[in-house]
Structures are given as C-alpha cells and as structure tokens.
Amino acid sequence: MPKGLICKAISGFYYVESGGRTYACRAKGAFRNQHIKPLVGDWALFTPEGEGGRVEEILPRKNSFIRPPVANIDQFFFVVSACSPAPNLFVLDKLISIAEYKGVEPVIVLTKLDMEEADRIAAIYQKAGFPVLRVDYRSSGWRAPLERCLQGKVSAFCGNSGVGKSTLINHLGFTPEIETGEISDKLGRGRHTTRQVELYPLPFGGYLADTPGFSDVQLHRQEQILKDQLPYTFREMVPYLDGCQFTGCSHTCEKGCAVLAAVTAGEIPPSRHESYCALYEAVKDIAPWELEGGKKS
C-alpha cells in the first residue's frame, strides 16, 4: 500500500501527494468511529483508484494542532506586523508556548517595517532565544535568510489577520497568488482572506503551509498546558528553574525565585514573564485528569 502526504483537505476530500502525483482521496468510513480526522501534513497509507483513492491509515504524528489544523510541523513562522494592526505580544507568547509544548521551532517574522521600526520587538525575542527575521520589501536582503530557514523542513505561517502573512507568501512566489484584504480601521483586523490549509512543495526541499488567518487565539482544551509543564515552554526561563529557593515554585511571585531574579537582572524580558504569569493564572487550577490524560497530541 503506497504512502503519501496529505497536502490539502477540502469538502471531505484529502489530496494525497505520492510518487509525483496527487490523488483526491476520501477517508475510510471507520475513521469516524475511531475519532480520527486526517489533517494536512499527515503521512498516510492509501489505496489509489485512478486519480482518486481512499485513505486507509494515518501514520503516527509527531505533533498536531487544532488551530491551524495541521500535523507534523517542524517550525512555525509567526508573522508580526510592526503596526496596523498593533502587535499583541501576549497572543504571540501564547502561540509560542503552544509551539514549544508541541516540539515545533518558533521563528518570529517582522513585517511592515516600512511603516514603523520593530527594534523593541526584535530585541525581546532575540533575547529570549528565538530566530527573528525582518521582512522589508524595500530591499532584497530579507529573502535569503527566510529561504534558508524554510529549506528541508515542513513550515507553517501563522499570524493575526492583516499582519501581511498572505502578502509575504505571495512575495516568496512558491504558492499560487493568495487574495489579500484591507485592514478595518474600527477593529484593526483584516478580512479573513485565506480559506484553507494547504501544503506546497518548495524548490529547495521542504514544504510550506499556508494557514487561515485569525484575530484571536484560544488555548483549546486539547492544547492547554499543565502548570508544571508551562515553565518549560518559556525557553529563556529553563536555565533558572532549578535555582529557586523553594520546591514547587510557580515562578510568579515567590521569595527566592531564580526566575524573578533573572527578570530583575534583565536576563528574561519582562513582557515574556508577564505573559507566563497570565498563562499560569489561566491553567493553575487544571488537574491532569481534566486534559484527557494530560498528554501531548
């Protein structure tokens, strides 16, 4: 039985790429009873039938996401505009935390630099240990670092509506032209112009996924992170976690907390710690048994 990659899913059809061909497959009926939903990015075994076929088995995933609905992602490119809409660092930190928990490398991409500088944002995330790429269409220098990051990996672009995600993908030129939308002055949001998740092969190896835009992100129940695991999703905090005076430290307000000392010393960006505290407050009362076993998907 051949193996293929699900590169697109529309209206119950799963488009499986295998051996240089793409097959429009249906999923076998037993998946519904087994509560299995194929996702873009899944590797699958399938039975080809002409130009179509049937997906028979989803191979083990290294990760999966509810929003965007993708699987087996190596890295997320989080697109953040310097302005219009104004960057929401808490939402970005929440997304980064989920990515870290799922074992996906976060890459920060700054856009709209012709309208406003983003040095402060760049400094925060470089200090925290993340790759930061600047996209400025006034010069060609932005392209090579981005392509190097994409090479040989399965990558997804995510970002709030209006941040220029679709414009960036269009400039890369590896996918069909994607409609871009205007920013609403009233809400600071763009129209949701991307309608589906699709995975595109890259000429230098790897795949690029375009994902639907969103204006807010909720930690879905399947993606909530237990309070004991949350500190490990803030990579700049990890070196200090064993240095606290008391065991069971929440790293939010305790005396003798090595993390708080690192914030005071400028080793951890204050905005990142503030985001951690807000996320901790949201999950501190959740027990492991409430999260369907408390395991990663």
From TrEMBL:
**What does this protein need as cofactor?**
Zn(2+)
Places the protein is found: Cytoplasm
* E.C. number(s) listed in UniProt: 3.6.1.-
| UniProt xrefs under PROSITE patterns | ENGC_GTPASE, G_CP
State the Gene Ontology BP annotations.
Answer: ribosomal small subunit biogenesis
Q: How is the cofactor bound?
A: Binds 1 zinc ion per subunit.
Q: What InterPro entries does the record tag this protein with? A: G_CP_dom, NA-bd_OB-fold, P-loop_NTPase, Ribosome_biogen_GTPase_RsgA, RsgA_GTPase_dom, RsgA_N
Q: Which principal EC class is assigned to this enzyme?
A: hydrolase
**One cellular component term from this protein's GO annotations in UniProt:** cytoplasm
Q: Tell me the ranges covered by the CP-type G domain, including all copies.
A: 62-217
So where does GTP get bound? Answer: T111, K112, L113, D114, G159, N160, S161, G162, V163, G164, K165, S166, T167
Q: Which HAMAP family match?
A: GTPase_RsgA
Q: Please explain the role this protein plays, according to its UniProt record.
A: One of several proteins that assist in the late maturation steps of the functional core of the 30S ribosomal subunit. Helps release RbfA from mature subunits. May play a role in the assembly of ribosomal proteins into the subunit. Circularly permuted GTPase that catalyzes slow GTP hydrolysis, GTPase activity is stimulated by the 30S ribosomal subunit.
The name on file for this protein is: Small ribosomal subunit biogenesis GTPase RsgA
